[in-house]
Amino acid sequence: MTFTRETDHGTPPAIATGKSVTLTIDGAQVTMPEGTSIMRAASLTGCSIPKLCATDNVESFGSCRLCLVEVEGRAGYPASCTTPVADGMIVRTQTERLKQLRRGVMELYISDHPLDCLTCPANGDCELQEQAGAVGLREVRYGYDGATNMGQAKDQSNPYFDFDPSKCIVCSRCVRACDEVQGTFALTIEGRGFDSKVSPSQGQDFLSSECVSCGACVQACPTATLTEKKVVEIGTPDRAVVTTCAYCGVGCTFRAEMRGEELVRMVPWKEGKANRGHSCVKGRFAWGYAQHQDRILKPMIRSSVTEPWREVSWDEAIAYTASEFRRIQAQYGARSVGGITSSRCTNEETFLVQKLIRQGFGNNNVDTCARVCHSPTGYGLKTTFGTSAGTQDFDSVMKSDVILVIGANPTDGHPVFGSRMKQRLRQGAKLIVIDPRRIDLVKSPHIEAAHHLPLRPGTNVAMMTALAHVIVTEKLYDEAFIRERCDWDEFEDWAAFVSQPSRSPEAVEPLTGVKAQDARAAARLYATGGNGAIYYGLGVTEHSQGSSTVMAIANLAMATGNVGREGVGVNPLRGQNNVQGSCDMGSFPHEFSGYRHVSDDAVRGLFERKWGVTLDAEPGLRIPNMLDAATEGSFKGLFIQGEDILQSDPNTHHVAAGLAAMECVVVQDLFLNETANYAHIFLPGSTFLEKDGTFTNAERRIQMVRKVMAPLNGYADWEIVQLVAQAVGLDWSYTHPSEIMDEIAELTPTFAGVHYARLEAEGSLQWPANEAAPHGTPTMHIDGFVRGKGKFVVTDYVPTDEKTGPRFPLLLTTGRILSHYNVGAQTRRTANTAWHPEDRLEIHPADAENRGIKDGDWVALRSRAGETALRALITERVAPGVVYTTFHHPDTQANVITTDYSDWATNCPEYKVTAVQVALSNGPSHWQEGYAEHSRLSRRIVPLEAAE
Amino acid sequence: MKRVYVSRDMASVALGADEIARTLAQAGCDVVRTGSRGLFSIEPLVEVEMPEGRIGYGPVGAADVGKILDGTHPHRLGDVGALPFFASQQRFTFARCGITDPLSLEDYAAHGGWRGLDAARAAAPQQVVDIVKASGLRGRGGAGFPTGIKWQTVLDAPDGPRFIVCNADEGDSGTFADRMLMEGDPYCLIEGMAIAAHAVGASRGYIYIRSEYPFAIDTMRAAIDRAAGRIAPFVIEVRAGAGAYVCGEETALLDSIEGKRGQVRAKPPLPALKGLFGKPTVINNVLSLAAVPFILAEGAQAYADVGFGRSRGTMPVQLAGNVKHGGLYEVGFGITLGELVNDIGGGTESGRPVRAVQVGGPLGAYFPPSMFHLPFDYEAFAQAGGLIGHAGITVFDDTADMAQMARFAMEFCAVESCGKCTPCRIGSTRGVEVMDRIIAARDAAPVAAEGAAGGYLGEALHSRAPSRIDTGIEAQTALLRDLCDTMKFGSLCALGGFTPYPVLSALDHFPEDFGAPAPIEQAAE
């Protein structure tokens, strides 16, 4: 793809009314949906009307006055952006009179704009420049000695973009993008008339303002006023490749805009169905880790983790890997080794890793990070609905009337979807938030939750059952839906269960801490407020009753008939870019791709015939089981692709002990992560920019990842896995990831219609995509549940064993922050640290005061599992008795604190509830200092001789 | 005890009415504070209740109280209403102003108040709208859009809440009719709004009053309190402006009420369909709404019988500036400009010849005496390149520098521009600069052309700096005309769009002030 800007029709599509009108534009008769602007209609028919303040991701504004047109029978010259088409209208967009007016306007613009085009970073990519050319401006008769807004200081505070107000034409596109697209309302126009200026917050600089650096303003800016620093540094791009972001499960698609092999900027792709042209600070800007000096580009091995690393050739590393695994299997048995697939790698790569384990190592010891995040989603939704995935696409939220968010913080964790949700809320949808913390959605500009139920961590099941109690006892359920779509007997059993007085909001109020009247009001709103949609995150799953809560959510949706159409549904907000995909691809020890059990002979036979081996019918080990087995001495070799279990998995001490007990740990990653401190073989990985493949986002959408530059380490990750497979004797010969996808399609009914040619043609596909659904499945369970009848499951509340007491009187819950991603391996190696240089402990003022803690003090955080230290942030965002921190920084290692309690059904760790004590401290703990030293020693590297 | 009447109008108070009222009270009089009669050359005015009627004295001061009370003051005017200035008026809207106690509900009812509302409430909404349509009433804020048609649009809007908004952000220089009415007869406006509410089904109304009118704000609030029961269930709230002229533009006004930055909205959508808080909204000027009680009480025909051409009814004309008898003169459309300025206004205060009058506020055109034959009529003024606007007439004598007046128009626009649209935001500032060059050139002190543009780049690339501009009168005048064209046809609202009226009319009618060697042809647009 060569570089062309995406077409900008000037104004968004009209709100569909089903009616259309016919009019004449420059002599051509055109038919357009009612409500379309003249500008958009003209653009769609190929004639371009000059414009500056109009751009099609925000509402029309009518300020620049370049887009004036003539409409027969109407006085004056209406702005085409704000004038809707009408039947029989005769529009002229190019006349001598219009030229004269447009030139007059442009002459005014240029009279207050620098003439340094040749040295301007937007030279050649500037709408003002382009429009000045388009209207034929040849002189500025006002001269340049009059009043001016030029010569103002640049604001370079944001690490990713500069704000040069001297170049601003006050079109307000940035302000409107911040308001309408992002919903942060960080920008405004300050002053009046000629003195009107764009201002972040209250005249602050960008960095210290409320700006969340989503980039919408930079994207909207038609001049060089808001420009990516990379464009300033490198120049304008010369080609663009559409690819998919490698951060969270929203799965934003971007145009990677390149100059040669150099990435200039990532610009959200307007055609992208997941993000609709929007982005967040991570995907838009925080990709510098891909070229970070910390990246390991040469394979390394060592015989013991106390030794320094030794750089070796790829041949040696691959051969050593194969020989070690074969040695261990010979010595300790076939099941003594396993692997972990990566939720950050592509579907194809994930598929290959599990194939390597099953086909090459002959066991099912494969697991993935979903174990520690959304495995309860898989279990719960499969049990109730019949499939392990969310029911909707993201667009669905725009048709919701009531949005229930539980255990999720979309504006931080899934910011681009969070902005979509906020758009809908500003349109009038009602919001219910169930979360121990007062997350931003509870109250932010032009958004306020109808109900915030600040429950105590660990009481989700009691809470959801109490809501069900209200819905059932007040007869707010949808009997027709239940009778038609669900098992009525099971419903009756469930209804009898939830109706017990002990399940009522009043009865559980002492447990949950949520006022019964609030719970009742929220339940009534969800049941009766129109289309009700539930969005949830790890605050639901990462509990000892994670699977129960997922099923309780499903019960609620079924009972109210909120499944099977747009605007409703049960929607897990999945954490990592491809965690949905890694689960789909058969990463779990008990399932092949498409969630089919390994004990199913027919399914296993299919794979055996294709792969030419006999496969193990016994489910393999889950990650915690592997670690347990390692400490017991029966598990000795682990192949880990793109995951840092030491930092991300609970109870760090236990993870470390397990890893230390193994004889061969292979880490395939971009960086020497924390797990690599315990590794023997390091295989340098490639970034998403360096390979082809697909990611599947939280809405089951399979999207293309496209290689925009050669792998710095020499190989894409799928090639490395193939090399290992070949070294252990497998006859793999994939020449391109598309061939891997063909194999997936052949072996997986829900993916039967997924091929690269189809993906190229459709842009993306939501599985199931097969003969029954050739264009994919945006909304699931439309005509019936996948499992047949929807299943109501009784979810009895069982309090977690993790309890507060005199030693550990506070409850710790953990989460993420906007600027960082997961363990921070990527984002810590970007300028995102400007916003969040360290993890902090959020603590309520009352709890802080009791302990003599002031804001910013170092505090020791202790649980029965371990201790760490970090600085305190005093805030009423958390309730008294609850503390909160993020786990982005290995210096803090929040998971030293978390315990090994886990979900009863899936072993998903109980990250969200840990009893802790907090006390003042002098700085990092003894353990932290020791760990830092251990990491330093473990990361020593002996370079390959004569490598340079 | 003697009953005396003294105006509490802001203008009267500015001239000392409060002190007179105090002195009269100390002298044992029963002082009734009224609105202003509207002729400021006789203010402060005291009217004494006598068996033969109210006898006026004015202008008077506090020291004159003795002579007023014993009837010997030389400024005895007799029956004020019989003075030619008042006798020749057709006071439909201002019938009570200056006569009644503005906050007395009894006075209001006794002088014909509430008859319009009662008549309206006895009729169906559509009938009320039809009556307003039949009256021919047009928007008195300046645009002249038929009020009944606007109401019809709101009445026909889909079900749901709707609002009545009264634009009392009277910002035009030389205008004061809105203020006079709100201070002198607030129930008239309240009644008009209540009729509008009944006609379109609104339950809530807002009056947006400029902050420079504290008396009007207080009076309206007090009146709303007292009339609340009479207009219920309709509720009215007063919102004070924050000093921006552009908030008199209806959509900027709506934004301001909503708590936003007062910035003009693009139309469509029309406020009638998507106005305040996105709901269908009747937004009318004070004078439009205040004309409605008369129409409902006396019938559409009584109103429509007066007027000229398509301009029906009366217009409260405001005479100001350098004029002998400044004040409010309500009269049917069709009276000529000359009659208003010379016969009613009595020519200039300075006694020098009238050089120009500006009609319609700071965005209205300047007319020379040669155009005094123009009838006061929306269409006639539009045809002559001007506008009636809010019917403010500002008189200038022959010492006025019309180039400076053109510059002032641009400066006014620059100061008051909201900054949204480019022609107004940048154009008005450039307009001031162009006028400065014209005036400088006219005054035979040519500006030395500056060198390169400022800034490091300008210096570094001096040879590539923009070419010097032609600062001569002809080039700058041509540029001024082009700029006016861009502003007039390109601006988003009337502020930028009408600024060319005073500029071009000054240029066309008084070219000599712009250094033109000979009078140029009248602009033929």
TrEMBL record, chain A:
Highest rank taxon of the organism: Bacteria
BP GO annotations: formate metabolic process; respiratory electron transport chain
Positions of the 4Fe-4S Mo/W bis-MGD-type domain: 238-294
GO terms for MF: 2 iron, 2 sulfur cluster binding; 4 iron, 4 sulfur cluster binding; formate dehydrogenase (NAD+) activity; metal ion binding; molybdopterin cofactor binding; NADH dehydrogenase activity
Keyword Oxidoreductase found: yes
SUPFAM superfamilies assigned to the protein according to its UniProt record, in alphabetical order: 2Fe-2S ferredoxin-like, 4Fe-4S ferredoxins, ADC-like, Formate dehydrogenase/DMSO reductase, domains 1-3
Domain 4Fe-4S His(Cys)3-ligated-type positions: 97-136
Start and end residues of each 2Fe-2S ferredoxin-type domain: 19-97
Gene Ontology cellular component annotations, sorted alphabetically: membrane; oxidoreductase complex
InterPro entries linked to this entry: 2Fe-2S_ferredoxin-like_sf (IPR036010), 2Fe-2S_ferredoxin-type (IPR001041), 4Fe4S_Fe-S-bd (IPR017896), 4Fe4S_Fe_S_CS (IPR017900), Asp_de-COase-like_dom_sf (IPR009010), Formate_Dh-H_N (IPR041924), Formate_DH_asu (IPR006478), MoPterin_dinucl-bd_dom (IPR006657)
Keywords: 2Fe-2S, 4Fe-4S, Iron, Iron-sulfur, Metal-binding, Oxidoreductase, Repeat
Domain 4Fe-4S ferredoxin-type: 159-190, 202-231
Family as reported in the entry's similarity comment: Belongs to the complex I 75 kDa subunit family.
Name this protein carries in UniProt: Formate dehydrogenase alpha subunit
Organism field: Sphingobium wenxiniae (strain DSM 21828 / CGMCC 1.7748 / JZ-1)
From TrEMBL, chain B:
Domain of life: Bacteria
GO MF term list: 4 iron, 4 sulfur cluster binding; FMN binding; metal ion binding; NADH dehydrogenase (ubiquinone) activity
Sequence ranges assigned to domain NADH-ubiquinone oxidoreductase 51kDa subunit iron-sulphur binding in this UniProt record: 403-448
Record carries keyword 4Fe-4S: yes
Keywords linked to the UniProt accession: 4Fe-4S, Iron, Iron-sulfur, Metal-binding
Protein name as it appears in the record: Formate dehydrogenase beta subunit
Keyword rRNA-binding: no
Family stated for the protein in its record: Belongs to the complex I 51 kDa subunit family.
Natural source organism: Sphingobium wenxiniae (strain DSM 21828 / CGMCC 1.7748 / JZ-1)
One Pfam family it belongs to: Complex1_51K
Needed cofactors: FMN
